[in-house]
Design a protein that fits this description.
Layout: E1 6-10, H1 15-26, E2 30-35, H2 38-48, E3 54-58, H3 64-78, E4 83-86, H4 109-137, E5 140-145, H5 157-176, E6 182-187, H6 200-205, H7 215-219, E7 230-234, E8 237-240
Parallel strand pairs: 1-2, 1-4, 2-3, 4-5, 5-6, 6-7
Antiparallel strand pairs: 7-8
Helix pairs in contact: 3-4, 4-5
Length: 246
């Protein structure tokens, strides 16, 4: 069902984004590998080029101009965007046994801004700028990333502010664009995941992105009745996801 559909994924040069891109490529969707690291984007696009048509686009999701340019480049290349996955984010990765983020009382404004602008603004910009293109065609899926972070010990507050914000944002936007036949959902990895940059110890102890299976592909095929909800991947299918703490 996804053959020749056009999928844009931010932060897809590596990690969960790359896993998602791979699953879409296997379905023969055309995939835009959008990443802040231009070299990683090109490398991943070249790898997946053996499976489907791909293009690498540099993007800084903190910049509305950069996101607008990314969307326009995708439209110029493929003529449409069927699926937008706002995946790019700064993540604590506390489960990797790396230093925790600063507590709020000790947090520099620059740190707060970098996390909020990447995670929350990036999702806002990506969603905002694909909606007009999808609305013209009365068709589209937007997948935004959710996640959890424990209350104790401290350090996850900033991350969870952005992730709870993304979940609420997605629920409200879903109603704004329902008449345009655009399905908006959030997806939760549910468990800590070790990606390519994790320490060796974490790579041995934690699951990799493959544990998410075809979850993103399934999200991209959800009917409008599911718009506004949050999902996780469980036993080969999507499951409703509750608000998470940890």
């Amino acid at each position: 069902m996804l053959e020749n559909k056009v999928v844009v994924i931010t932060g897809s040069g590596q990690g969960i984004g790359k896993h998602a891109a791979t699953t879409f490529a296997k379905e023969k969707a055309k995939v835009v590998i959008a990443d802040f690291n231009a070299d990683l984007a090109k490398k991943t696009a070249a790898e997946l080029g053996a499976l489907t048509e791909t293009v690498a686009i540099h993007v800084d999701v903190r910049s509305e101009d950069s996101v607008t340019k990314m969307v326009n480049e995708a439209i110029q290349r493929f003529g449409q965007i069927d699926v937008m996955m706002n995946n790019a984010a700064i993540v604590p990765h506390f489960a990797w046994n790396i230093p925790r983020w600063p507590l709020i009382a000790d947090m520099p404004l620059e740190f707060w801004d970098r996390v909020v602008k990447t995670n929350l603004y990036g999702t806002f910009f990506g969603t905002k700028h694909v909606i007009p293109h999808m609305a013209k065609r009365k068709s589209g899926h937007i997948i935004n990333l959710y996640g959890g972070g424990g209350v104790r010990p401290g350090g996850a507050a900033t991350y969870m502010v952005t992730k709870d914000g993304i979940r609420t944002f997605s629920r409200y936007v879903a109603e704004e664009v329902r008449d345009a036949n655009i399905c908006v959902v959030t997806f939760s990895p549910r468990v800590p995941i070790a990606t390519e940059t994790a320490p060796a110890e974490a790579l041995q102890r934690l699951p990799g992105p493959d544990v998410l299976g075809t979850g993103f592909v399934l999200c991209a095929q959800l009917p409008m009745a599911q718009s506004g909800k949050c999902f996780a991947y469980e036993n080969g299918k999507l499951a409703d996801e509750l608000v998470r703490e940890g």
